[in-house]
Specification:
Distance between the termini: 55 Å
Strand content: under 5%
Radius of gyration: 18 Å
Number of helices: 3
Structural class: mainly alpha
Largest sheet: none
Helix content: 40-55%
Number of strands: 0
Oligomer: single chain
């Protein structure tokens, strides 16, 4: 008899807990750091705006609904660069 792989019941998934503000901030800063690393890479051939567009899809779930994801991410990137 095979056992299930960690799911309780019949294929039901557990709901993920909402992120705390600190976790959300850490996730946004991690995305910004990846963007900065790629921007500073010697092999980079993208503009800053192109990289913002690229990483905006990752940042969108963290972004407040009234803001554009790329613009919000731009602010986070500048804060990371300024070490705030």
């Amino acid at each position: 008899m095979k056992r299930s792989c960690g799911l309780s019941g019949r294929g039901k998934r557990h709901k993920e807990a909402a992120m705390t503000p600190e976790e959300s901030d850490n996730a946004a800063r991690a995305i910004a750091k990846k963007l900065i690393t790629e921007l500073r890479s010697n092999s980079n051939n993208h503009t800053f705006r192109e990289l913002l567009d690229k990483y905006a899809s990752q940042a969108k779930p963290l972004c407040p609904p009234r803001h554009e994801a790329w613009l919000w991410l731009c602010v986070i990137v500048h804060r990371v660069v300024e070490r705030k």
